[in-house]
Amino acid sequence: MSEGTLYDKVWDRHKVTTLPTGQDQLFVGLHLIHEVTSPQAFGMLRERDLEVAYPELTHATVDHIVPTADQSRPYEEDAAEEMMAELEENVREAGIEFSDPTTGDQGIVHVIGPEQGLTQPGKTIVCGDSHTSTHGAFGALAFGIGTSQIRDVLATGTVAMEKQKVRKIQVDGELGEGVEAKDIILEIIRRLGTEGGVGYVYEYAGEAIESLGMEGRMSICNMSIEGGARAGYVNPDETTYEWLEETDYFQENPERFEELKPYWESIRSDEDAEYDDVVHIDANELEPVVTWGTTPGQGIGITDPIPEPESLPAEKQDTARRAQEHMRVEPGETMEGYNIDVAFLGSCTNARLPDLRRAARIVEGREVADDVRAMVVPGSQRVQKAAEEEGLKDTFEEAGFEWRNAGCSMCLGMNEDQLEGDEACASSSNRNFVGRQGSKDGRTVLMNPQMVATAAITGEVTDVRELPETEVTA
Amino acid sequence: MSDEVEIPEVDAVSGSGIPIRGNDIDTDQIIPARFMKVVTFDGLGEFAFFDLRFDDDDNQKDHPFNEDRYQDSSVMVVNSNFGCGSSREHAPQALMRWGIDAIIGESFAEIFAGNCLALGIPTVTADSETIEALQDWVDENPDGEIDIDVEAEEVTYGDETIDVTVDDAQRKALVEGVWDTTALMKSNAGAVRETARELPYVDDAAIPDAD
Fold it and tell me: What is its EC number (chain A) (predicted)?
């Protein structure tokens, strides 16, 4: 068993008791809610005549179903309007703060928590959304929960959990040009598998992680769940503290920053911490990674050949064959030159300001290829505003991208932003599952934002490093 | 008080089987996101595996959930990493509302298994050969009874009894009828407040007064 890791320390500080099942009852420091997975939980509370126990530690936003074009109320789609109205009613009744679109603070739940300073090191953070692992970038213990667990958290401020093992993923070296945090996590999932992390929490460490800004760390922690790990984290450091100091919470309560810093320092993994497993990755060896299949683990370097299913472990062969049929790719070829119809820059993985900046640098002075539908969906209203102020919106629009309002959008196609028919999409999101982007015949190729921008320009999957006369940055 | 919810003990589940073959069957396959634009779980059963069951014109495709012989089945037999992807409880809710009471598989994604437990649905595991043999048997014996003894970690079908694994906490929760944890955890409200007070980041004003 692990000892002295951030995970162990945060767990111990939040453990209320051990339940008769052997699970621990953990106190929840921040409960984020959104419109898709919470209404049923509020319904269960009403059935049981229970109230929200810790409304001040709960925060709501709307992201999954929110339209990204016309956001005037009532929403054009009745189901979306109903879900929004239900959330409004629930938060009003319980006294929960709601970053709704009228506040200017709305956005994808995993973008707004860190923006507002709600996400902090050493907190336990839960949300009815598997990408809650994102918040681990700040040294929080953050994981997704189901709706019955949301009911538990609303009613008690706690969640029942079994303690997991800790795997340290040590990423040494330096990323090359055009290679990003996204490529690190896609490589980790490719190597360890989509179920390699089941039963584990991932600690990301090493100079390649430490040299990333908070946004890059969030991209990595975000996709922990795609590797089967319910949570992933990075130990807090000066980069973390610099981010926190700028957030609303600490701008409004500057004294809290100094008060809390010793706690943040104390929960860092010890130098001699013990891990259940350690994995090494060399960042120097990485190139931009793209997926060829229908799970996030089916990725390859942009210059690598698509694997023969027979060359894979027995249990992965059948999945690979079906994936290659769905994607219409041939083993032995690379993904370079794969035609795309749609380019999607968005999602809780890659729709923060630096993501959009890097992509904008690629599209500046260029044009989106004919027949490609390209869109940018900022992760939050704040990202959107900041990007507009520094001219990114103009850059994208001049190149032929659509510039939309904040939300989850085409990552999962719960609003009007969906693939049609068998369209292929170069996507900065996190899941390439069949049907994920709204069409069951749609084809998703996951990649980093610079690669999405490049694909939008050329109309096919293209190595960003081969695009002539452009500045690419790590 | 209506929070005294009756939680049944689930020490055994019996029923005929239904094989769902394939590794990495994700939550978007189990319940496509467009069916989640709802504020209750009612009626989700008919959308389980929807895109695998129906084509664009709503014609039935080959899928066990469409086959007459499996319409009364309640024990699903799956392969590895079943339920990977999102945390949507809509996935097990859809399966439960279709009629599934228990799932036997090679392995399950963690959040999915936790969501099943919260509904009292066992997710028991065995190695791939054992699972494939059981899937083949179900094919041959669609009306055949499968008995899952959660407490003894055994599954009996035909003349066979096989050892399966049930996660310790899951087994205790099911067998002792404490898989719905709300009332249990609420009964510790005092200790919860104490834990909260010890955390430097929790504002005292956010901690409720004693009931």
Answer: 4.2.1.33
Interaxial angle between packed helices A381-389 and A392-399, expressed in degrees from 0 to 180 and rounded to the nearest 10: 80
How confident is the prediction for chain B on average, in pLDDT?
96
CA distance A94 to chain B (A): 13
Contact with chain B for residue A373, Cβ under 8 A: no
Spatial contact of B11 and B175, defined as CB atoms under 8 Å apart: yes
**A411 known member of a binding site:** yes
Q: List Cβ neighbours of A430 (8 Å cut-off, separation of 6 or more).
A: A131, A222, A223, A226, A296, A347, A348, A349, A411, A446
Q: Which CATH class is domain A6-266?
A: alpha beta
What is the crossing angle of helices A238-245 and A254-266, to 10°? Answer: 160
User: Hey, are the CB atoms on A53 and B189 less than 8 Å from each other?
Assistant: yes
Topology of the domain covering B12-178: Aconitase; domain 4 (3.20.19)
User: Chain B window 13-42: which residues touch A at a Cβ cutoff of 8 Å?
Assistant: 22-24, 26, 28-29, 32-34, 36-41
3-state secondary structure of B84: strand
Q: What percent of chain A has pLDDT over 70?
A: 99
The closest of A153, A138, A136 to A55, measured between CA atoms, is A153
The boundaries of every CATH 3.30.499.10 domain in chain A are 6-266, 290-466
- Hey, what are B91's tokens? 């996935």
Query: Nearest CA to CA, how far is A122 from chain B (Å)?
Result: 9
Asked if the Cβ–Cβ distance from B178 to A316 is below 8 Å, we say no
Q: Decide if pLDDT at A127 tops 70.
A: yes
The domain A290-466 is placed in CATH, from the list 3.30.499.10, 1.20.1250.20, 3.40.50.1980, 3.40.50.300, at: 3.30.499.10
Instruction: Name which of A13, A48, A195 is nearest B80 (Cβ-Cβ).
Output: A195
What is the pLDDT confidence band of residue A265, given thresholds at 50, 70 and 90? Answer: very high
Two tokens at B187? 């009964």
Percentage of chain A modeled with pLDDT above 90: 98
Q: What is the DSSP code (8-state) at residue A137?
A: G
Is A415:A67 a contact under the CB 8 Å cutoff?
yes
**Token pair of B205 as six digits:** 């004003």
Closest by CA to A85, choosing from B37, B90, B41, is B37
Q: Do A195 and B169 touch (CB under 8 A)?
A: no
Separation CA A380–CA A162 (nearest Å) = 33
A429-468 tens-digit pLDDT: 999 999 999 999 999 999 999 999 999 999 999 999 999 7
What is the mean pLDDT of the segment spanning A296-308? 98
Determine whether the interchain pair A435/B114 forms a contact, defined as Cβ–Cβ distance below 8 Å. Answer: no
Q: How far apart are CA A206 and CA A221, in angstroms?
A: 14
Quick: pLDDT tens for A76-120: 999 999 999 999 999 999 999 999 999 999 999 999 999 999 999
Inter-chain touch B109–A198, beta carbons under 8 Å: yes
The Cα B76–Cα B78 span in angstroms is 6
Q: For A52-74, what is each residue's pLDDT tens digit? A: 999 999 999 999 999 999 999 99
From A20, A77, A414, residue closest to B33, measured CB to CB: A414
Was A348 annotated as part of a binding site? yes
Structure tokens of B195? Answer: 């834990």
